[in-house]
């Protein structure tokens, strides 16, 4: 059995890196710098679906890193929060986080987590997982206390919540894979890596 291929992660997400390392993979994080906001806006103008937006952003990140490291196995990731006809990005301020959570409370939204894997400079696998999350109709007073305790940590998360922390208290129901909600559909990725012989099974 050949040695496991090292993986380059085109993401600055600490939780994604932690999940991959905890699963026993050899991973190096090298965030790919792309103008996500401009790309998202352009795709939205073209009436792209949230799934298409997530997939395109994950691919662009993987491709940018693969262009610099064509010999490497490169993983691009992106997560989109979709509510009604709107796509939510990471909040840029505490006030914007408050507005996002006020909009989402008492409602059900979707998280779409996309993965695109490159090898030898070419895309070889892609996957999108979806989860549905329903929030409690929490009060403004509780919301302000939540932000007091969790800002700015949640600024790195779409929806301004971290399900692995106090953000779990925002929700009354969750349908979908836990890893999808954290932004990395880990089980399909591990299955593919094992099937291709990139990791030992």
Report on the architecture of this protein:
By secondary structure, the protein is an alpha/beta fold. It has a single domain, classed as Maf protein (Alpha-Beta Complex), CATH 3.90.950.10. 37% of the residues lie in helices and 25% in strands. Helix 2 crosses helix 3. The protein is globular and about 55 Å long. The relative contact order is 0.17.
Intertermini distance: 10 Å
Discrete helix count? 7
In terms of per-residue confidence, which ranges show pLDDT below 50 for 5 or more consecutive residues? none
Number of strands: 7
Tell me which CATH architecture applies here. Alpha-Beta Complex
Q: Outline, from the CA principal axes?
A: globular
**SSE ordering:** EHEHHEEHEEHEHH
* Beta-strand content bin: 25-35%
Q: Which structural category do the helix and sheet elements fall into?
A: alpha/beta
Q: What is the average of the pLDDT values?
A: 95
Instruction: Report the top-level CATH class.
Output: Alpha Beta
The CATH topology assignment is Maf protein
Helix content: 25-40%
Largest sheet: 7 strands, mixed
Query: What is the number of independent domains?
Result: 1
Rg calculated over all Cα atoms: 17 Å
């Amino acid at each position: 059995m050949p040695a496991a291929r090292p993986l380059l992660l085109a993401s600055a997400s600490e939780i994604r890196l932690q999940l991959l390392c905890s699963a026993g993979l050899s991973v190096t994080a090298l965030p790919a710098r792309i103008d996500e906001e401009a790309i998202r806006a352009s795709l939205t103008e073209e009436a792209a679906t949230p799934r298409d937006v997530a997939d395109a952003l994950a691919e662009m990140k993987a491709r940018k890193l693969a262009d610099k490291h064509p010999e490497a196995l490169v993983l691009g990731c992106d997560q989109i929060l979709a509510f009604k006809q709107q796509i939510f990005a990471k909040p840029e301020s505490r006030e914007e986080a408050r507005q996002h959570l006020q909009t989402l409370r008492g409602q059900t939204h979707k998280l779409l987590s996309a993965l695109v894997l490159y090898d030898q400079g070419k895309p070889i696998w892609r996957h999108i997982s979806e989860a549905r999350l329903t929030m409690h109709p929490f009060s403004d007073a509780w919301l302000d206390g939540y932000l007091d305790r969790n800002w700015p940590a949640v600024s790195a998360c779409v929806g301004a919540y971290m399900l692995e922390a106090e953000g779990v208290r925002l929700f009354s129901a969750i349908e979908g894979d836990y890893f999808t909600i954290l932004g990395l559909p880990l089980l399909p990725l591990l299955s593919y890596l094992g099937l291709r012989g990139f990791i030992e099974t």
